[in-house]
Amino acid sequence: KHVAPILSEMTLNGLYDTTGDWYYKVGLPGKSGVGGGILAVVPGVCAIAAFAPPLDVAGNSVRGQLAAEYLSRTLNLSLLHEFA
Fold this sequence. Notes:
globular; 18% strand; alpha+beta; 3 strands
């Protein structure tokens, strides 16, 4: 009941002003926090979480973004991979 609206919100706004870049690079709904945490969700499969406080100018974990991008690409998790 609540999963689809939450994933939709994460896809559209989860990483503040850089959400579009995140979705293009990682291809997964994500949410970051200004404390350095970041979460990516592979719907129906798993979630990836990282905590690394150094933040970029938008308030997102720099290393967390890199880790999520690496795992998404390496494990072929992106929801956009069929279109690439």
